[in-house]
UniProtKB/TrEMBL annotation:
<feature type="transmembrane region" description="Helical">
    <location>
        <begin position="147"/>
        <end position="166"/>
    </location>
</feature>
<dbReference type="Pfam" id="PF12811">
    <property type="entry name" value="BaxI_1"/>
</dbReference>
<feature type="transmembrane region" description="Helical">
    <location>
        <begin position="249"/>
        <end position="266"/>
    </location>
</feature>
<feature type="transmembrane region" description="Helical">
    <location>
        <begin position="214"/>
        <end position="237"/>
    </location>
</feature>
<protein>
    <submittedName>
        <fullName>Putative YccA/Bax inhibitor family protein</fullName>
    </submittedName>
</protein>
<feature type="transmembrane region" description="Helical">
    <location>
        <begin position="94"/>
        <end position="114"/>
    </location>
</feature>
<dbReference type="InterPro" id="IPR010539">
    <property type="entry name" value="BaxI_1-like"/>
</dbReference>
<keyword id="KW-0812">Transmembrane</keyword>
<keyword id="KW-0472">Membrane</keyword>
<feature type="transmembrane region" description="Helical">
    <location>
        <begin position="60"/>
        <end position="82"/>
    </location>
</feature>
<feature type="transmembrane region" description="Helical">
    <location>
        <begin position="123"/>
        <end position="141"/>
    </location>
</feature>
<feature type="region of interest" description="Disordered">
    <location>
        <begin position="1"/>
        <end position="25"/>
    </location>
</feature>
<keyword id="KW-1133">Transmembrane helix</keyword>
<feature type="transmembrane region" description="Helical">
    <location>
        <begin position="178"/>
        <end position="202"/>
    </location>
</feature>
Length: 279
């Protein structure tokens, strides 16, 4: 499999679900009847039991939809609670929700990334935790900037759908060169954000998160990079389908897509707060 900047998809095993080195499935961007890719050397080949069918696009769509729906439910509930607490000028519970959801999501994501095994329950719990985390932040922002929550949701959905269309139509090909560029850009912004956080602890302001012009430009760049990460996520899921991996691996594809969605939504919400704060 090609490399990806999403840690969820690193070092995945390839398999055939009992169909040999060529999977019979059609991926996100592959015409019916075309053979899948053969398995590259250096990877294991987990064979699914004869009764276990291979992964399909529908599996990925359904599992991603369930994960996203779980995040939306917990997110809405957390946002309503956070808005009520913000109205009562009680910030403590909001911070508790944010930190709790973030820590649970972080721990689960690390477990899934290092285990490299699909798990429906863990994916859904991860999605629920991230929903609580994002919902608490959204509720607080919505209390300060009315209407920002809907804008952030629509913006995230718009970017996701746009990149899916771009991938399916082949308007942008996921080549090894593009993959390396996206991975490098993702690593670059991650290092900048980490440096900004560490220096901020010592009172040094890099201007990346203070709501100024540089912060707005930086957020736009990060949103663009996150959007291009969807191309790698779609391509990785596509390869998993074409290689005939067992259907249960659709949960892992859903987990990978959720990590990018969480990142994108948080950055769009941040950008919108900058723009409304400067009005």
């Amino acid at each position: 499999m090609r490399s990806t900047s999403n840690p969820a998809f690193r070092n995945l095993p390839t398999g055939s679900a009992g169909h040999g080195s060529y999977g019979p499935n059609v991926g996100f961007n592959q015409p019916q009847g075309m053979p899948g890719y053969g398995m590259p050397s250096g990877y294991g080949t987990p064979q699914a039991p004869p009764t276990e069918r291979p992964m399909t696009v529908d599996d990925v769509v359904i599992k991603t939809g369930l994960s996203l729906g779980t995040a939306l439910v917990t997110g809405v509930l957390a946002a309503i609670y956070a808005m009520g607490q913000a109205g009562a000028n009680n910030i403590g519970p909001i911070i508790g929700l944010m930190v709790g959801g973030m820590l649970v999501g972080l721990v689960l994501s690390l477990i899934m990334i290092f285990r490299q095994k699909p798990s429906g329950p863990m994916t859904l719990i991860y999605s629920a935790a991230e929903g609580v985390f994002l919902g608490a932040i959204t509720g607080l922002f919505e209390f300060i900037y009315e209407g920002i929550a809907l804008q952030a949701i629509l913006g995230t959905a718009g970017v996701f759908i746009t990149m899916l269309v771009v991938y399916k139509t082949g308007a942008v090909k996921v080549t090894p060169k593009l993959t390396k560029w996206i991975i490098g850009a993702t690593a670059g912004v991650a290092i900048l954000m980490l440096a900004n956080l560490v220096l901020g602890l010592f009172g040094v302001n890099m201007g990346l998160r203070d709501g100024g012009a540089l912060a707005i430009i930086f957020s736009l760049v990060v949103i663009g990079i996150a959007a291009f990460n969807f191309l790698l996520d779609f391509d990785m899921a596509d390869q998993m389908i074409r290689q005939g991996m067992p259907a249960k691996w659709a949960w892992f594809a859903a987990f990978g897509l959720m990590t990018t969605l969480v990142w994108l939504y948080l950055e769009i919400l941040r950008l919108l707060s900058y723009l409304q704060g400067n009005d």
